[in-house]
Design goal:
Elements: H1 2-11, H2 20-32, H3 39-48, H4 65-75, H5 78-95, E1 99-102, E2 105-108, E3 114-118, E4 124-136, E5 142-152, E6 155-161, H6 163-189, E7 192-197, E8 200-204, H7 213-220
Antiparallel strand pairs: 1-2, 2-3, 3-4, 4-5, 5-6, 7-8
Helix pairs in contact: 1-2, 3-4, 5-6, 6-7
């Protein structure tokens, strides 16, 4: 239970001693701080979960936004290291129109029309018309970064890449690849997949089919070939019923 693990570390108590309110606080930290969220943004994010948190406090035992954000980065040092590695790799690739490797990923900036990041599955993330230059940071200070053109419902926007955003894009894309692999496994086993809802799938079988939930979960928990050796540990939960419900 990562939520309890973090709060036990921050509050200097045993995991079994972390209560439900403290676990809720740990949840917003784990879910919110993995992608370089700052203190102000974290306060807003926590409020969406109903967790009202102060920026700072003189009380060393009080849970605050600053303690949450910087405590997360201290406890899980490998994550900020990943932000930095990705940020530097992308800036180097775009500035020098080069191709490099970082954490099992290929960062290709040779094409001025598109920055590409090759995922372990073989798929690519694409960032249109990347440019390396000076931008205003979150704190208003000038810094060197890569910008790209994003196309969405609001039209064309210039956005800035940074380590946390790159991490978010990569993690979500790899999660999609894991989910897709499970779906292929399910179809190969004989399930008919009707739809997906975020990280869920809905599969259909005849009432007299030998297929069951146990087989479905085994399919969804199979580690993809491209992820073997990467330390993936997969599990799944589900239910059987005549109708879908949350």
């Amino acid at each position: 239970d990562l939520y309890k693990e973090f709060m036990a570390w921050m509050l200097d108590k045993g995991i079994a001693e972390v209560n439900s309110d403290e676990r809720s606080q740990g949840k917003v930290v784990i879910l919110g701080c993995g992608y370089q969220m700052g203190v102000g943004k974290f306060i807003e994010y926590a409020a969406t979960f109903g967790v009202i948190i102060q920026r700072s406090s003189e009380d060393p035992n009080e849970f605050t936004a600053e303690k949450a954000v910087y405590g997360f980065r201290e406890k899980y040092k490998e994550i900020p290291d990943l932000w930095k590695s990705l940020d530097e790799a992308v800036k180097k690739a775009v500035e020098f129109r080069s191709c490099g490797y970082v954490r099992g990923l290929v960062v290709d900036g040779r094409n001025p029309r598109c920055l590409r990041i090759k995922l372990p599955s073989g798929r690519y993330l694409h960032y249109a018309y990347p440019k390396y230059g000076t931008v205003a940071g979150f704190d208003g200070r000038k810094r060197k970064a890569v910008t790209y053109l994003a196309f969405d419902s609001k039209g064309v926007q210039t956005k800035t890449l940074y380590g946390g955003l790159l991490t978010e894009n990569i993690v979500q894309a790899m999660s999609r690849d894991v989910l897709a692999n499970g779906m292929f496994e399910c179809e190969n086993a004989g399930f008919t997949i009707l739809m997906t809802i975020h990280d869920e799938i809905v599969a259909e079988i005849p009432l007299d089919s030998p297929l069951n939930l146990e087989v479905l979960l085994a399919c969804m928990s199979k580690v993809p070939e491209w992820a073997e050796g990467m330390g993936f540990v997969l599990s799944a939960e589900g239910y059987e019923g005549r109708y879908y419900h949350k």
